[in-house]
Amino acid sequence: EEWDFVLVSDIHEMGSEKEIKRKKFLDELSKKGFTIKKIEDTKLFYGVRAPQDIFWKYQCLLTNPDSRQQNSSAQQDVPVTTRIRVVHFILQNTVTSDLEKLHDLMKKKVFEAAFPLHKKEDITEILKKKWARWRVLFKEQPIEEIRRYFGEKVALYFAWLGWYTYLLIFAALAGLATVAAGATVFSSSQVSKEICDANNTIMCPLCDQNCSFWVLSDTCTYAKVTHMIDNEATVVFAIFMAIWATVFLELWKRERATVATSWDLYGWDEEEEELALQLINNPQHEPRRYQHSYFRSTIVLILAVLMIMVLIGIAHALVIYRAVAMALFTQSEVSLLSKHADIIAVMTGAVLHYLTIVIMTKVNWHVALYLSNLEKPRTFSQRENNFTVKIFTFQFFTNFSSLIYIAFFLGRINGHPGHYVRIAGHWRLEECHPSGCITDLFIQMAVIMLLKQTISNIMEYLIPWISHQLRKKKKRPKKRSMMLGEEEEAEDPCKKQWLKNYELNEVNVFSLFNEYLEIVIQYSFTTIFVAAFPLAPLLALINNVIEIHMDAIKMMRLRRRMVPRKAKDIGIWLQVLEAIGTLAVIGNGLVIAITSDFIPVQVYKYMYSPCKRQNHTGMDCSTGYINNSLSVFHIRDFEPHTKVLPEFNGVQIKECRYRDYRNADDYTYTIQFWHIFAARLAFLILFEHVALCVKLIAAWYIPDVPQKVKNQILTEKHINLHNELSITAYSTEV
């Protein structure tokens, strides 16, 4: 027996309100010609099968890939995915005499669940063997089989994810080459050498109370790591990634066009299908009109801005934590904490940032859903699009606010010795290391990406697996006791199948959305600040290879079957990806211009170095850069409440150095500071214009639709028109 859907209900008392409501709903289905089968176990299970005339109507109303020449075997001609989609729509839109739909009845616990069935078929065995298992980690995905089982929307997601993962190979190789190029100058960089040899350069204390001076050479390893990341190769890699992001999207558009043509989706219209299904369900149905309320949109906009301000406030809280942690660790009596206070503060701050991401993701979800419902969208797709824009915006600020602070504000708004900017008048803001701030951004991104791709993925797999195991254990003993008492019922071949599907984890309408959101946020990490973390594409590649098969296992083995949905493309996610591509150009340009020391080094080489002053050609032109980038501070000018130890290694200290370009007498900015500022601005404008021009050229050079697809569509149109003309000519002659 073939059943389209299964409804599950608790066993209610005869004559109770829930039992009456359930009977009314099932009666409405019976009036529409549905066949209903009841099986009783610890729950009540109702198998539902739609009448054949519903699918005949569907085929008549829509010219789509499911259309077939109507005949007596039309049932076999309708794909299973279409049957499930049509039946699901009718179940969700069937109204009882109490004006209640299935959604309302599930809220009132009349029904517990409604789901299509995973069945033992050839296609399920193929998917389990070639897709939903860890052994086939590096095999090609069976996209056509995925489409036939889960529908076009899921198949397009996996086609897009597979395409993205494939192109990540090139980005990962470029990132590895960048790191390898940096590793070659790990110990040979002139700037690193100067820091490592600066045994006599006394730096200003890192805190205000009982902190001693320190020697610049103490941070030799940190400087080497910084210049392994921050070098000329990083600029080339940033431009490459801007081009890569564009090429990826353009090639995906071509791939999508090929797929959509092979699945005959060009003539399909979502709105037309929705109207057809409404008329099949209720011939007297009147379509809901499009509406727009400026008042409602204004309220949504105000609430969204308030939410964004809250998220930025959380980023400020993380900044405060880092400042306080830095002060406490520096003054700690534990030598490990005091010696590596800056790194420990950065790493604990990154872990705290990850925890805020996990917590705020759930909050953002509920807020975005509430705001989307306020807009009262006409269709589910419209609601999904509105929700996508809001949740991505909130998630972007949740994930990137702290990174934006580290990249563009850390060490630039903290003041200088004798006049520090303080939180609540007490704690100093953090300073950058003398070799630059880019390592802080590198550490933050590395910690967040590693935690997201380990802990989050483990939990994403373990929670459904443990939940499934618990549901099986909970149901089986009761099921056996029922079988002992009711042997005839136990023989029903449907019972075992329905129970097995019921034991699987529940899916909701946003299950696929979660997967998209996870990968799009990862794509943001892979592109926007990739100049500071060239290994991001490699981590994303490793994650995606695992993610594809983990999602497959969840869908095939741990979750109930998703309701198949049709789609011609990945929807609004494409616009989101294009927006991220533009942000990537801006973000990487700002990282190189502001966060990196690339510009100050170049300005020094060509304007202030010995090469410029003395015309030396046989020496490294960055010689003397570190000494030039450190300003002098007289300790007599410390603020009154600052308590520092005036002696260091038995020597009376009168002045110390700090990272900035200020005069030694009045601490105003030097002319070199303004030269560097102008160079940063000029580079940013040049970089972004060049990168955006290259993106536009790449978008123009690579057509969205392959010529083969265009010619195929052209041929089909010509054949259809020719056939119409032949029929018209024949009718005229007759």
TrEMBL record:
GO terms for cellular component: plasma membrane. Residues 80-143 form the Anoctamin dimerisation domain. The chain crosses the membrane at residues 154-183, 233-252, 298-323, 343-371, 391-410, 520-549, 570-594, 677-702. Residues 146-714 form the Anoctamin transmembrane domain. It is found in: Cell membrane; Membrane. It is a multi-pass membrane protein. InterPro entries: Anoct_dimer, Anoctamin, Anoctamin_TM. Keywords: Cell membrane, Glycoprotein, Membrane, Transmembrane, Transmembrane helix. GO terms for molecular function: chloride channel activity; protein dimerization activity. PANTHER family: ANOCTAMIN (PTHR12308), ANOCTAMIN-9 (PTHR12308:SF37). Belongs to the anoctamin family. This is Anoctamin. It comes from Illadopsis cleaveri (blackcap illadopsis). The gene is Ano9.
